[in-house]
């Protein structure tokens, strides 16, 4: 290990290293708080002035993070939220946690990552460790980030250190958090890997090095592709079970009693969030560059993205059965977040279902205890209270997200017709309950 690496490793060990994190979202904020908690002075940089203001005043906008956790660390002088990119000059380590969406063409959009790299490049100095955490295609760190940073004349592995470490945050998961979810680390050189591992070991229970940044990048994409493909499979099984008059939920629960060789996945109204609908396309895009068509990924994407339409078809059929037509009917969407007990509506299938229904002339309102307001087809709607009167007033109630704290017995009792896309009403019976 060279002098600069030794110097940085001493600073990490004695917690005097100044830790910077770019992007104070679902990934960056919990990570910043873990490092602050471990005794580091942590700076959280974001371009969103409103978010930074909330953090500076000791608040939180992420349900998994209670405000008092932020407040205590800000007060203790260990967490410094800021919009000032010049602060990176004084940082010993900088971790990038900014969005990696898809363009309309389903190609990777690395603009947020490359903007952050540009900001880092301007203040890059010898002895600094840079880590990319944003989910991305294999090769991003050494084909895009490395050359941009080496334009400064500084050399990775000698003057500065560069690694990739995929984030595995699962919002709403009470058991596995940033601290106890093992962290994968792959560096450009062995020193880069070692320093990044050493940093994470200070705040995270288990850290696992891999041989390269490409391996680390692919690990994350394998994990999310695994989910996407299995959800696609179970959605297809749900569609075929429906045709054959079989209750797919009962089938899965029974299959899940097998103690080996089976992992339960559940059908649903479609996939949402920042990861599962997006990340597999980062992998298939990169594979295509190498002349390889990733068929499983594309097929799962097709099946999963058709689920909102399928839900609308099932609702139309059910209304028809009750002598009503879709156009002019009133519907309450219960749950609009992309999964239960969180407030994130990014890529939520509820948005697609709502748009499809509105375009077919349905009067839509919604209830979601985590999402007070929602942009629906260009207009803002506010969450309605879930009351017996509201439910009685609907031609159909559509459960899109199975939040835990909802009064499902009241939903069953007061609704004329219910489309349950999540088996939230498991154990309830009635001819007015339609399941996916
Ligand atoms: N949310 C998840 O569950 C999850 C899980 C695993 C991995 N990831 C990955 O982690 C990355 C971040 O996701 P997220 O959910 O935290 O996103 P997010 O949208 O919640 O947060 C990103 C933050 O980065 C800020 N930002 C954007 N450009 C910036 C810039 N140039 N400088 C400073 N700040 C900037 C945004 O204002 C925002 O606050 C993505 O690549 C995502 O795929 C997310």
Bound molecules: nicotinamide-adenine-dinucleotide
Beta content:
5-15%
Radius of gyration: 24 Å
Helix content, binned percent: 40-55%
H/E topology pattern:
HEHEHHEEHEHEEHEHHHHEHEEEHEHEE
Structural class call reads alpha/beta
What global shape is seen? elongated
The helix tally amounts to 14
Task: Write down how many β-strands occur, each being a DSSP E stretch of 2 or more residues.
Answer: 15
Average pLDDT rating:
96
Widest sheet: strand order?
3-2-1-4-5-6-7-8
Q: What is the CA–CA distance across the termini?
A: 58 Å
Low-pLDDT stretches are none
- Sheet with most strands: 8 strands, mixed
Quick recap:
This protein is of the alpha/beta class and 436 residues long.
What would the keywords be for this entry?
five-stranded parallel β-sheet; binds nicotinamide-adenine-dinucleotide; 436 residues
Commentary on this structure:
The protein is an alpha/beta fold and 436 residues long. The protein has 14 helices and 15 strands. The protein has an 8-stranded mixed β-sheet, sandwiched between helices. It has a 5-stranded parallel β-sheet with strand order 10-9-13-14-15, covered by helices on one side. Strand 4 (93-96), helix 5 and strand 5 (129-132) form a beta-alpha-beta unit. Helix 11 (295-321) packs across helix 12 (349-359). The protein starts with a helix and ends with a strand. Nicotinamide-adenine-dinucleotide is lined by residues 22-28, 45-48, 51, 97-100, 112, 115-116, 134-135, 167-169, 171, 274-275.
């Amino acid at each position: 290990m060279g002098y600069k690496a030794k110097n940085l490793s001493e600073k990490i060990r004695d917690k005097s290293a100044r830790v910077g994190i770019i992007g104070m979202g679902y990934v960056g904020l919990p990570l910043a708080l873990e490092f602050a908690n471990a005794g580091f002075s942590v700076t959280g940089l974001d371009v969103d002035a409103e978010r930074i203001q909330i953090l500076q005043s000791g608040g939180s906008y992420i349900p998994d993070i209670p405000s008092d956790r932020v407040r205590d660390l800000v007060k203790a002088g260990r967490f410094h939220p800021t919009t000032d990119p010049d602060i990176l000059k004084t940082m010993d380590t900088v971790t990038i946690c900014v969005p990696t969406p898809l363009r309309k063409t389903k190609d990777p959009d690395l603009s947020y990552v490359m903007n952050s790299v540009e900001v880092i490049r301007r203040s890059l100095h010898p002895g600094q460790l840079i880590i990319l955490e944003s989910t991305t295609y294999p090769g991003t760190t050494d084909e895009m980030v490395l050359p941009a940073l080496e334009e400064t004349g500084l050399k990775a592995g000698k003057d500065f250190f560069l690694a990739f470490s995929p984030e595995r945050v699962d919002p709403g998961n009470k058991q596995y958090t940033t601290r106890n979810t093992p962290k994968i680390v792959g560096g450009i050189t062995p020193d880069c890997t070692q320093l990044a591992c050493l940093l994470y070991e200070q705040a995270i229970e288990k850290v696992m090095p891999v041989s390269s940044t490409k391996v680390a990048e692919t690990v994350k994409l394998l994990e999310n592709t695994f989910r996407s493909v299995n959800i696609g499979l179970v959605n297809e099984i749900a569609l075929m079970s429906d045709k054959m008059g079989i209750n797919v939920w009962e089938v899965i629960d029974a299959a899940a009693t097998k103690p080996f060789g089976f992992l339960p996945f559940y059908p649903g109204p479609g996939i949402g969030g920042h990861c599962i609908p997006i990340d597999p396309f980062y992998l298939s895009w990169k594979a295509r560059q190498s002349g390889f068509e990733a068929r499983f990924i594309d097929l799962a994407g097709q099946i999963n993205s058709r689920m909102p339409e399928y839900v609308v078809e099932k609702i139309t059929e059910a209304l028809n059965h009750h002598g009503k037509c879709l156009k002019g009917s009133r519907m309450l969407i219960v749950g609009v977040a992309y999964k239960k007990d969180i407030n994130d509506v990014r890529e939520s299938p509820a948005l697609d279902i709502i748009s499809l229904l509105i375009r077919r002339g349905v009067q839509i309102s919604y209830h979601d205890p985590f999402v007070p307001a929602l942009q629906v087809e260009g207009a803002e709607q506010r969450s309605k209270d879930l009351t017996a009167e509201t439910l009685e007033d609907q031609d159909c109630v559509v459960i899109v997200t199975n939040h835990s704290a909802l009064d499902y017995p009241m939903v069953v009792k007061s609704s004329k017709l219910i489309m349950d896309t999540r088996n939230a009403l498991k154990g309830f019976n009635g001819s007015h309950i339609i399941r996916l």
